[in-house]
Amino acid sequence: MLWCVVVLATCLKVLLIKTYYSTDFEVHRHWLALTNSRPWRFWYIDVTSQWTLDYPPFFAWYEWCLSHFATLFDSNMLKLSKDGYISEGTVYFQRLTVIASDFVLVYGVYLLSCYLTTNPIRKCSQYKARWKSPTTIFQVLVLGNMGLLLVDHIHFQYNGLLLGILLVSVSHILNGRHCWAAFWFIFLIHMKHIFIYMAPVFFIYLLRNHCMVNEGKRLKWEWRNADY
Length: 228
Known about the structure:
Signal peptide: 1-16
Radius of gyration: 21 Å
Keywords: Endoplasmic reticulum, Glycosyltransferase, Membrane, Signal, Transferase, Transmembrane, Transmembrane helix
Transmembrane segments: 92-112, 133-150, 156-174, 181-207
Enzyme class: transferase
Number of domains: 1
Pfam families: Alg6_Alg8 (PF03155)
Strand content: under 5%
Oligomer: single chain
Number of strands: 2
Strand order of the largest sheet: 1-2
């Protein structure tokens, strides 16, 4: 059922390729050119354009990776200049990178769906109508989220990718793999710093559930080996 939802959502995203896009489209186009044309040590100090790089390093390296595929569509989009650039190849390439990045979101949804269908407390497999099961409803609400469609596939951003990493981290928490959960959350912060507002929640949860144990009515510190 997950793949039915994925196919339907992807078809809708493809239909939105030629729609309106905001200035963020040119911002990310410039970052492709910047990371491809300049050594990494100049990425955060280059002022060729007003669209200076203001995302954390991991996202900058992600743009660098994407830039190596850009020449397959239009190599001119990688020319660093203060002026904007647009072409049909550029539109198709950048839109498709967002669609492809959303498969990280699909993976995060898959992990949480597995938890919903296997956890004895929250088991959802008893629902005979698959489209009405909590798991399917969760998949539709996330993968078909109209907010993400609007912001990512019309306005133009990569929030689906970032939300996918967050869901991967949450899935590890639910399955008791605290170190992996911490790893993916730290990775997420290095992709987009705005998620740091969630850090206190992760910190308190991991402190209580990984670093401390119950001893009667008292809590006791306990050093645990990494449970990868």
